[in-house]
Amino acid sequence: MNFLSLFVLIPLLMLLGLWLARGLKGVRTVMVIGSSALLLLAAWLTVTFLSDRAAGLDAEMLYTASFTWFEPLHIKYSVGVDGISVAMLLLSSIIVFTGTFASWQLKPLTKEYFLWFTLLSLGVFGFFISVDMFMMFMFYEIALIPMYLLIGVWGSGKKEYAAMKLTLMLMGGSAFLMCGIFGIFYGAGGQTMNVVDIANHTGGAHPIDFAQQCIWFPLTFIGFGVLGALFPFHTWSPDGHASAPTAVSMLHAGVLMKLGGYGCFRIAMYLMPEATNELGWIFLILTGISVVYGAFSACVQTDLKYINAYSSVSHCGLVLFAILMVNQTAATGAVLQMLSHGLMTALFFALIGMIYGRTHTRDIRELNGLMRIMPFLSVCYVIAGLANLGLPGLSGFVAEMTIFVGSFQNADTFHRVLTIAACTSIVITAVYILRLVGKILYGTCTNEHHLKLTDATWDERLSVICLIVAVAGLGLAPLWVSNMVSGGVAPIIEHIGHGVSSCNPFI
Amino acid sequence: MDYSQFLYMHEELSLLLVITILFVADLIMCPDKKSGRGVYNTCLPVVLLTLHTVLNLLPCAGDTATSAFGGMYQHTPMMTIVKSVLNVGTLVVFLMAHDWLRREENKVKQGEFYLLTLFTLLGMYFMISAGHFLMFFIGLELASIPLAGLVAFDKLRYESAEAGAKFILLALFSSALLLYGVSLLYGAAGTLYFDEFFSQLRPGLLSVLGMTFFVTGMGFKISLVPFHLWTADTYQGAPTVVTGYLSVVSKGAAAFVLLTVLYKVFALTPLFEAWNHGLFWIIILTITVANLFAIRQKNLKRFMAFSAISQAGYVILPVMGGTAQGMTALVYYLLVYMAANLGAFAVINVVEQRSGKINIDDYDGLYRTNPKLAFLMTLCLFSLAGIPPFAGFFSKFFGFMAAFNAGEHLLVFIALVNTVISLYYYLLIVKAMYIKTSDSPIATFKSDGYTRVALAVCLLGVVLLGIVGTVYNYIDTFSYA
Q1: Of these four, A493, A495, B37, B400, which has the most CB atoms within 10 Å of its CB?
Q2: Do residues A471 and A245 lie in contact, with contact meaning Cβ atoms separated by under 8 Å?
């Protein structure tokens, strides 16, 4: 058994433990032990990975292992990691750990809540360690379905509507995706589901016909893109985030949406390089719209969660935008942006959840002067906001800088114009963040009921501080992450190569 | 005559033995000597059927394809697998039925329930193993006529009697169509033996017509759209246990038989294209229409009827292209579908027996009062909708994969989009159980031991059949095209 499988095994044991656990205390114990174990494992994996890379292990995927699963269909249980997936695993474990504490006081049906929560994280971890398309797809769907119950039962507001909309849209996306996966599998000869094998034409795979690529690429890209909030398939995201309970919003915006970008990069683009070069521009325009439109939409929202949800659309759009630029710097930036966005959005949602838990409103028109009442939460909120608008020293700056520098390296007008257009989102982000901070945190509190509120409890502080440390760590010392990531990105970008689209009217 | 040929039929003979034992036992045991009242006993048929299943499944690995009685009776190891799948389904139905048969009005009739069910099972055995159209037809009739008795088993209940009448009329009608098709085929080929058919068939309008009637007749049995109109009423009216049996066992047998006949008899090029093309539209219609109707249902049994129709579309999806991969996928799908659907029916049945409630609205807040049942129901519904890590995901994936491999890209895409619709209505029930609350929820109750065993079997199936790859791989070693 490969040690990467522990990422699946631990959540499984947690599920078992939760099922057997009696009472609130038992449930909490299982969750704390499990999520800490995952965090330690991910940290250990990062250290090991970095030292092994430094020692000269330069295979594309490290720690690979493969077991036959469905032999007649060439489906295997294969795991392996590269720089990108290590970064994603680290991110996921941080979010799961902090999410556990963020939902410390959740009621009712705590046990059931954590059962579904753990199942969700099982899917996420499984997705990032797998290199077999079937496995990836399976874990992807495992991660989606618990959202329905998590939002539907424990959510707030229009929860039933939001839960159903989210589930159906994402499942619709996975219907596209499944078709795409079949297309890739049989297009490459139907001998292997292994991503690396298909890309490098080893293990019985042959190159996929260009004509076929042009059918399966859009299907696969849209399939993953729905989860990555690709315009115009992003509409599930604001409703879903707004209705979800705190920790679920964190996990969802922080990790689940990354599955989309990761999948687009690892499956759609990596396996179908010619189609990427040919059709990438269409999606580039769509993601460009996501970036700007998401930011503008965030400006006019009045609900804290909606603001953050639209800002997520904008930032996740930036991830897809950057990978479609197909160059080393931009793609590294994309992965950094996934990390950075994951951490700071989780922080944001955690804080919003804590504020909402006290004030029982998320409407910014009813909130003001919170700085005096809950200074800890407010300061953290300011930090999260600054990270979001890209202040140097915090993670947002590193990621966005890398993306825009990378994007601008493309010499043609089409890419440069789009880059400039996307850059405006930074300014718009600053507008809504600063206005928001000024409105709800500063000034004097006019609501008497709010004056009696208390500041964060220990479990909330723990979860928030963890996230802030991670955000600042990534912002202050980005090199060790970006080196690791760029090592993972390089073979993929090299594989896709650089081609000029023959059907792009803007070139 | 070589009497050793009967040994090839050991499965049928052993089932016949089970039937005989039960028949005699029923004569002796029921009614009770002292009180003169009915005695109920679920244990005996369950044990006998389990023994029968195990004894027949064990030697299966070393088996080879054989035929007896001059080709009238055929046997391949795959058929043993399918028969065993049907056995397990019937077994679960028997376990579920305990609670219902215990009722006062059913106590005297319980012997009949087992006998009728097992006779239909015997009919399915013959249908599966038939090597001749007439043999096939006899099996089919044996499999459908006792079913009418089962559907009308609650004869004092108006809906049940009505459902029985509807079922028998439609069954006869479809048999007539099928028989007409067979007679046309006889005209086209001059033989009714499956083995000779292939070589002697003269392609032309006559054979295409014959095949169309044949497929139509089977379409009624499997309840494919547009031959599905009897399904909803019959499923709603029949006792829930019987509905479960109808929707899984009898449908599964018919689907497998359709596959074998299409593969074996109509494999000739022009005919192959004809049925491939016809099935294409039938599958699209079946899945889409049933899904759209299912959304509107209020009654849970009616809802399950439409869900079962749409599932039938997915069941025969892998048939397209006539590949060995398709056969594996179909049998695997049947097995998985059986676990999930019977699990759902077991919950519906026990809730109906204890509370008399059968509408979707009645399930509001079930999780608060009966968490375990609601949880099981959720898992079964997720499996039906094709959500991993439950078995339904794997069976759907493999079924689609087989059809995709056969070149049916568009069909797979349409079916995939339909899975999203089906997810919507399955989630409606999940929503009722978990999210909604009710003023008069179903009271908390303890289900009986037999139902628990049935639920445990289904739960194991739903959870393990997919993740444990051995099942699919094992089935695959026996498939052929």
Answers
A1: B400
A2: no
* Complex prediction ipTM: 0.91
CB contact under 8 A, A148 and B427: yes
Other Cβ atoms within 10 Å of B417 Cβ, number: 17
- What pLDDT does B59 receive? 67
Radius of gyration of chain B (CA): 22
Residues of A with CB below 8 A from B471's CB? Answer: none
> Residues B152, B146: contact at Cβ < 8 Å?
no
Count, residues in chain A: 507
Sign of CA dihedral B106, B109, B111, B115: negative
Residue B425 distance to chain A (closest CA, Å): 10
Give me the residue from B398, B412, B423 closest to A73, CB to CB.
B398
Check B423 against A72: CB less than 8 A apart: no
Task: Compute the half-sphere exposure of residue B183: CA atoms within 13 Å on the CB side of its CA.
Answer: 6
The dihedral built from the CA positions of residue A175, A176, A177 and A178, taken in this order, carries a sign that is positive
DSSP for residue B299: B
Q: How many CA atoms lie within 13 A of A47 on its CB side?
A: 5
Q: A231's torsion region: left (phi>0), alpha (psi -120 to 50) or beta?
A: beta
B372 to chain A, any CB pair closer than 8 A? The answer is no
List the single residue in A149, A164, A182 with the smallest CB-CB distance to B401: A182
Domain range list for chain B: 8-477
Q: Are the Cβ atoms of B431 and A164 closer than 8 angstroms? A: yes
What is the spatial distance between Cα A389 and Cα A427, in angstroms, rounded to a whole number?
Answer: 8
CB contact under 8 A, A69 and B469: yes
For the stretch B117-152, what's the b/e string if a residue is b when 16 or more beta carbons lie within 10 angstroms of its beta carbon? Answer: bbbbbbbbbbbbbbbbbebbbebbbbbbbbbbbbbb
Query: What residue of B is the nearest CA neighbor of A74?
Result: B473
- In B, which residues are within 8 Å of A223 by CB distance? none
> Higher pLDDT residue, B32 or A177?
A177
Cβ distance A134 to B325 less than 8 Å, yes or no, reads: no
What's the CA gap between A110 and A134, in Å, rounded?
Answer: 32
User: Which residue from A minimizes the CA distance to B413?
Assistant: A179
**Contact list, A71 vs chain B (CB under 8 Å):** 469, 473, 476
Query: DSSP secondary structure string, A405-469?
Result: HHHHTS-SHHHHHHHHHHHHHHHHHHHHHHHHHHHHTSS----HHHHT-----HHHHHHHHHHHH
Cα–Cα distances in Å, from B445 out to A241, B364, B442?
A: 37, 16, 9
Q: What is the pLDDT of residues B86-121, one digit of tens each?
A: 999 999 999 998 888 888 778 778 888 999 999 999
The two structure tokens encoding residue A490:
């390089």
**Given an 8 Å threshold on Cβ–Cβ distance, is A186 in contact with B427?**
no
Closest by Cβ to B401, choosing from A73, A152, A171: A73
Strand locations in A30-114, DSSP E?
Answer: 62-70, 75-81
CA distance A159 to chain B (A): 10
What would the two tokens of residue A128 be?
Answer: 């990032």
Residue with more model confidence, A261 or A1: A261
Query: Which secondary structure element, helix H or strand E, spans residue B73, and what is its range?
Result: strand B73-75
Q: Compute CA distances A380 → A372, A437, A472, whole Å.
A: 13, 11, 12
Listed residue (B452, B87, B379) closest to B253, CA to CA:
B87
Of B405, B416, B473, the CB nearest to A70: B473
Dmax over Cα atoms in chain B, in whole Å? 71
Residue A59's φ and ψ, nearest 5 degrees, are -65, 155
Q: Which of B398, B416, B431 sits opposite A179 (nearest CB)?
A: B416
Give A441-455 pLDDT, tens digit per residue. Answer: 887 777 777 777 777
pTM for the structure as a whole: 0.93
